[in-house]
Amino acid sequence: NLLRHTGLPSRPPLGTSSLPRKPPAWLQNDKKVLQFNGYFQEHVVENPDENFRIRKCVFYYYLDDHTMYITEPRVENAGIPQGVFLKRHAFPKPDGGVYHWTDLDAGKEIEVYGRVYKLVSYDAFTAEYCASAGHPLSPCEGAPDDNFKMTRKMINMKQNPPDLAETKEYFEVKLKGGKPNKKLASYLENDRKVLSFRVLWDDTSYDGGEKQYILNYFLSDQTMEVKEVRVANSGIDDFPMLLKRMKVPKEPVLTHYPSMSLRKEDYYLPTDLIVGNVIKVYSRDILLISCDAYTTQWFKDNENIDQVPLKVKNPRKNLKYQPVPKYNGFGTEEDSMASVNALILKPPKKDEQKIFKNDMHILRFDARLVSTEPDDENRKFIIAFYCGDDTIQVYEVCDRNS
């Protein structure tokens, strides 16, 4: 060993037994911070609107080295410096010593450098830690509001009259400001969300009858369209679009000229489209009878409304068919039916697959003629059945010297 020649004392290598069984306080409480919310009252001089101002603060207490720092949340248009109020260090008490976390509680007042702060609340981790350490905290309180905050709240709640708002918007656009798009938020939130209903219109025109349509309501811009449901063999020329996509007013304002009336039209909203209700689409009474699955779920989630479909009876179809005439004896029965089903005669189609499969299959049977004549009793016949086209052939076996 080279250490014995240097004269330095030798020691055994460190093992696991040299590590402390209990970690130190700074390691045990590393990254553990207690948070308290409070405020202090600041006097305001030479101001007729307010005599004092409430300034809210947040207190952070670090358990690893028992230091604190105070920060002030930023308030819009406050006019005073905000941010870090006191840097992190051990806060001294007025009577000596430093503040410990056991000195902090909701409802208590602490004095730091001549300024009195009152603690009103804390976060969930702080309450859990203090309770586990045997020091439960008092219930949280609320911080009071000053005249400045109440005045700013009333100003923000105040709405400008329409003429002043339009003038303000005009000057903002004139000074190269952006014009606010009030419909952008609704478009981004409800784009491609469509409520689809099946509706019924009792048409009183010459064609008459009840006609079914599809009503699509677009949530992005509160417009709707009405499409016709095509029915096969209805005898009516279908028109694909009854109403193009547009805002539909509940009661249209009828005037001789545009902008002649100052009354604004009231348009249909999703809450007006309930299954079973009758809505007017430009003087047409439209009955909502059902909706799709997405529309049903949307009303249940957003409006807490259950859309129950109506039971609508389908119109009875009294179709009269021309009776099939009897077989006239010309050609086969299939040839005769060709003249019944079509105006232009067409030859009947043969089952090519059946002919290809059973063309060589022929069933033959021996037969005798049933007759009252004695000479015909000995006549013999052969009946052949062709499986390819279901035809029958009968021929007689000739006897000699008959």
UniProtKB/TrEMBL annotation:
Region (Disordered) location: 1-23
Main location: other
Compartments, record wording: Cell projection, Cilium; Cytoplasm, Cytoskeleton
Coiled coil: none
Keywords: Cell projection, Cytoplasm, Cytoskeleton, Repeat
Domain DM10 residues, every copy: 30-134, 191-303, 359-402
Cellular component, GO annotation: axoneme; mitotic spindle
Matches recorded under InterPro entries: DM10_dom (IPR006602), EFHC1/EFHC2/EFHB (IPR040193)
Domain of life, per lineage: Eukaryota
Keyword Nucleotide-binding assigned: no
GO MF annotations, alphabetized: alpha-tubulin binding
SMART domains for the chain: DM10 (SM00676)
Keyword Transcription regulation assigned: no
One BP annotation, GO: cilium-dependent cell motility
PANTHER family: EF-HAND DOMAIN C-TERMINAL CONTAINING PROTEIN, EF-HAND DOMAIN-CONTAINING PROTEIN 1
UniProt name for this protein: DM10 domain-containing protein
